[in-house]
Design a protein that fits this description.
Number of helices: 6
Number of strands: 3
Strand content: 5-15%
Mean pLDDT: 91
Structural class: mainly alpha
CATH superfamily: Winged helix-like DNA-binding domain superfamily/Winged helix DNA-binding domain
Radius of gyration: 18 Å
Shape: globular
Distance between the termini: 35 Å
CATH architecture: Orthogonal Bundle
Strand order of the largest sheet: 1-3-2
Largest sheet: 3 strands, antiparallel
CATH topology: Arc Repressor Mutant, subunit A
Number of domains: 1
């Protein structure tokens, strides 16, 4: 028995949020087994990407970089440290905790790059199309953030 929504624009198939959700789930599912073989979850992968790119980083800066709170980053860093991929140390300002890659964490970058390339291939998009899509999504995120809407701090 098919029903019809009384509200225009409330069709699931017309929702930007659902299209983004479905695309995100597909990409994360493509990453999951590849990262799992390397001992990483997808949220941990994002932390590692930031550290490979930026080097030693304070937890609060890492949280800002990933658009999360420090309390959301801490359990990710805990698990990365337990796996031997990162270390933590207090800065001169004892309130600041610095996260650094270990040699094991640095050496993982090459293997993760291979996983990332495999996922890119699965998208079927060329370099230009991927760059354009990333730029459009960044601009969308910036516009929504500029409206002052609350962000979700759940890393899962």
């Amino acid at each position: 028995m098919a029903t019809s929504t009384k509200q225009p624009g409330l069709r699931l198939d017309d929702q930007l949020c659902f299209a983004l959700y479905a695309a995100t789930n597909s990409v994360v599912r493509a990453y999951r087994p590849l990262l799992g073989e390397l001992g990483l979850t997808y949220p941990q992968y994002l932390v590692m990407l930031a550290l490979w790119q930026d080097g030693v980083t304070a937890v609060h800066d890492l949280a800002n970089r990933l658009q999360l709170t420090s309390s959301a980053i801490t359990p990710l860093v805990d698990r990365l440290e337990a796996a031997g991929f990162v270390t933590r140390a207090r800065a001169d300002d004892r309130r600041v905790v610095l996260v650094a890659l270990t040699e094991t964490g640095r050496s993982l970058e090459v293997r993760v790059s291979e996983a990332q390339q495999a996922v890119v291939c699965r998208t079927g998009l060329g370099d230009r199309d991927l760059a354009d899509l990333r730029q459009e999504l960044k601009e969308l995120a910036d516009r929504v953030a500029a409206t002052g809407m609350a962000r979700d701090d759940d890393p899962d």
